[in-house]
């Protein structure tokens, strides 16, 4: 015979283990958040700089790219609720200096400083360009900005994945 208290303990255990399972959600350049549908915000000091491109082997069938002239500022903002985020670009032959500001942090992470990113001639799909884990569970805002480039650069955002608990 199973006692009532055993059942409660079992139920609590089940509830606790179910509750802490993390799930990954995605933010696509075109379709936005897989859970809420919220789309990334694209801003630029010039109109219509971001252009959508179709592709077969990238995430969601499209990526969004901008060809950025010197002195143009381009911003992309991703908002999410979770504890970790991974951002994927398509990398061409030129690497732009892209800065990632998590939650208005004043010291950004720069793409050119990211050790794993190397120059390539063929476009690299699914290139992990930024990640941050161990965030407090809650709402976060990642600002991705390209500015002060000395030459014309190409930036292509494909998607991001974030962990929700
Ligand atoms: C979420 O995605 C990251 C990066 O791809 C991976 O390391 C992690 O194991 C995934 N977590 C879950 C719960 O699938
Ligand atoms: C882009 O982000 C930078 C850095 O926070 C900010 O100074 C600038 O005003 C933003 N520009 C646009 C067009 O949103």
Automatic annotation (TrEMBL):
Superkingdom, natural source: Eukaryota
Signal peptide extent: 1-22
Gene3D superfamilies membership: Galactose-binding domain-like
Record carries keyword Signal: yes
Entry keywords, A to Z: Signal
Name the record gives this protein: Uncharacterized protein
